[in-house]
């Protein structure tokens, strides 16, 4: 049966990097007879310009009908001054995540040995790094009610948010993480702040309860401040990390930076049935948009994750990842991962090199 893929190029470098992922998907579609049907739609600033809103109804309908979604990136300074927050590009993404119930964010941080020098940490600390951060994406303090900004008596301004999770929200993200750990090295570290926050006392309890269902996975717990420290001290001690929305937001960016280039990192946001939206970890990079120099590999690797997690096409995913490794072996580098003695290439050349490696 045909599988519907919705492609959302978005803004800035989005259309440039997605075009390269599309070349790769078109080829593996043919090589593995995947039956992928690809369709494109507008989201973010591009949708605001064309329709006045960041998530047009037809984009949302297409997202609901799709088996998986591949996104470039959204955002740019030209849309940041709108005082109406509903008409900001990011609302397009948040709308898709909320409507599709994409609560599980998977962010791998893999350091290809060819790029070990790109990290700011010593090569022996990071070389061969391969960790996965599982972040809860639709709950926690970013969504908790009540929230607000007000002026109290005496003219004193006050901002407030609510950090809340119920046990069902914790259990479903816990399952995603235990399953992921089971498919990897069977080590799961749950990160919380159970010494201070009651909501994470519950988080820890639920993770411990779940652990009985996954006796093959070794569960440990760590406070978030220690986790931040351990990530930069000895990151290879981790296999899979699971944490809430805010801690995950911060730790996954730190983990991304261990690898030296955000231009290499894919991500996935999944619902309870493994339907998902896949996107590079980086943003729309307005500073380099339109120049043909952006690194398309994070988006190409996001397409590989899509094949693996939502479409059950692990062999095609493996082949794409091997092709990416091969172009790095060939010494090809976009500007963000460039180093002495390597060959600098642009966005399209990098995409073409991956396609050539897939054909070889
Ligand atoms: P960014 O990730 O877009 O850029 C940070 C730096 O990394 C820039 O110097 C950029 O040139 C570079 N960079 C990013 N991706 C690259 C790539 N593939 N190849 C080479 N270099 C790359 O972050 P930012 O500058 O903070 O944000 C720019 C815009 O992107 C903002 O409007 C922001 O809201 C948006 N944003 C969108 C998403 C998303 O769509 N999921 C995520 C983060 C930021």
From TrEMBL:
It comes from the Bacteria. NCBIfam families: leuB. Keywords: Amino-acid biosynthesis, Branched-chain amino acid biosynthesis, Cytoplasm, Leucine biosynthesis, Magnesium, Manganese, Metal-binding, NAD, Oxidoreductase. The gene is leuB. InterPro entries: IsoCit/isopropylmalate_DH_CS, IsoPropMal-DH-like_dom, Isopropylmalate_DH. It comes from Nitrincola tapanii. Belongs to the isocitrate and isopropylmalate dehydrogenases family. LeuB type 1 subfamily. The keyword NAD applies. This is 3-isopropylmalate dehydrogenase. Binds 1 Mg(2+) or Mn(2+) ion per subunit. GO terms for molecular function: 3-isopropylmalate dehydrogenase activity; magnesium ion binding; NAD binding. Catalyzes the oxidation of 3-carboxy-2-hydroxy-4-methylpentanoate (3-isopropylmalate) to 3-carboxy-4-methyl-2-oxopentanoate. The product decarboxylates to 4-methyl-2 oxopentanoate. NAD(+) binds at residues 283-295.
């Amino acid at each position: 049966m045909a599988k519907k893929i919705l492609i959302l190029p978005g803004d800035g470098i989005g259309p440039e990097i997605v075009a390269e992922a599309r070349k790769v998907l078109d080829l593996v579609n043919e090589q593995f007879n995947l039956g992928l049907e690809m369709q494109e739609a507008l989201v973010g600033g591009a949708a605001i310009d064309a329709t006045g809103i960041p998530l047009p109804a037809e984009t949302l309908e297409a997202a609901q009908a799709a088996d998986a979604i591949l996104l470039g990136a959204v955002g740019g300074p030209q849309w940041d001054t709108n005082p109406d927050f509903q008409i900001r590009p990011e609302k397009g993404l948040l709308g898709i995540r909320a409507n599709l119930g994409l609560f599980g964010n998977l962010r791998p941080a893999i350091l290809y040995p060819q790029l070990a020098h790109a990290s700011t940490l010593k090569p022996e600390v990071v070389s061969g790094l391969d960790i996965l951060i599982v972040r809860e994406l639709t709950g926690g303090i970013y969504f908790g009610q009540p929230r607000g900004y007000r002026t109290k008596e005496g003219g004193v301004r006050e901002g407030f948010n609510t950090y809340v999770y119920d046990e069902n929200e914790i259990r479903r993200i816990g399952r995603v993480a235990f399953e992921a750990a089971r498919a990897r090295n069977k080590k799961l570290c749950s990160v919380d702040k159970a010494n201070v926050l009651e909501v994470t006392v519950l988080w820890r309890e639920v993770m411990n309860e779940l652990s009985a269902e996954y006796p093959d996975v070794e569960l440990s717990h760590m406070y978030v401040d220690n986790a931040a420290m351990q990530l930069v001290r000895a990151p290879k001690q981790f296999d899979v990390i699971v944490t809430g929305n805010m801690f995950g937001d911060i730790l996954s960016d730190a983990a991304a930076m261990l690898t030296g280039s955000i231009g290499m990192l894919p991500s996935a946001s999944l619902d309870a049935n493994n339907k998902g939206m896949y996107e590079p970890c980086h943003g729309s990079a307005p500073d380099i948009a339109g120049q043909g120099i952006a690194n398309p590999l994070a988006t190409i690797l996001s397409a590989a994750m899509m094949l693996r997690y939502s479409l059950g096409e692990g062999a095609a995913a493996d082949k794409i990842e091997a092709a990416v490794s091969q172009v790095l072996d060939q010494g090809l580098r976009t500007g963000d991962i460039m180093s002495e003695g390597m060959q600098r290439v642009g966005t399209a050349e990098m995409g073409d090199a991956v396609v050539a490696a897939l054909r070889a």
